[in-house]
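ok so for the tutorial part 2 we go from a plain amino acid sequence to predicted structure tokens. step 1 is just haveing the sequence, like this:
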Amino acid sequence: MGKYDKLLFQILRGTSGANIGFDDLCQLLLRLGFEECRRGSHHTFRKEGIEEKINL
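step 2 — the prediction. this is what the tokens look like for a chain of 56 residues:
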């Protein structure tokens, strides 16, 4: 199991809390097919077929 597979498992299991690094979370979303848009300090992620956007 790779690094991002483990990270996704922790997130879905609900045991990671604040222990997720910002860069790791961004990389995970990109690997899951999300597109990133940066505006200042805000990073938004969108994916076709998913109505809600993720704003970090």
